[in-house]
Amino acid sequence: VQLVASGRGLVQPGGSLRLNCAASGFTFCNYNMRWYRQAPGKERELVATISSSGRTTDYADSVKGRFTISRDNAASTVYLKMNSLNPEDTAVYYCYTPYLRGYWGQGIQVTVTT
């Protein structure tokens, strides 16, 4: 199982970013997918979840209305579009699949700064 995350990591406040996570090694369309983040000195937190079909999504209150999780099952890829970013969104972002014991992507540093 591999989760390979990508996306530009530095943005100014108010800006936007899209993170991608390409999955392989399991039947992607059968599993929900999640994005987590971990800021310095804080615990890892769940940011967004998307159902296997993509029809259902859920978000942490801190990102609701600003972030959008989506997926392309044909491409085995999950996305996180982040708008109206602020410095509190600075963190390492991870994609995750609950397949078997659960697998994590490698993490992408997102820094929101002037």
What's the SSE pattern?
Answer: EEEEEEEEEEE
Helix content: under 10%
Number of strands: 11
The general outline is globular
**Low-confidence runs of at least 5 consecutive residues:** none
Give the class from helix and strand content and strand pairing: mainly beta
Mean pLDDT: 97
Distance between the termini: 37 Å
Strand content: over 45%
Largest sheet: 7 strands, mixed
What count of helical segments does DSSP give? 0
From the alpha carbons, calculate the radius of gyration and give it in angstroms.
13 Å
Description:
By secondary structure, the chain is mainly beta. It is 0% helix and 49% strand. The strands form two sheets. Strands 2, 4, 5, 6, 9, 10 and 11 form a seven-stranded mixed sheet that branches.
Give structural attributes:
seven-stranded mixed sheet
Ordered list of secondary-structure elements with their pairings:
Layout: E1 2-6, E2 10-11, E3 17-24, E4 33-38, E5 45-50, E6 57-59, E7 67-72, E8 77-82, E9 91-97, E10 103-104, E11 108-112
Parallel strand pairs: 2-11
Antiparallel strand pairs: 1-3, 3-8, 4-5, 4-9, 5-6, 7-8, 9-10, 9-11
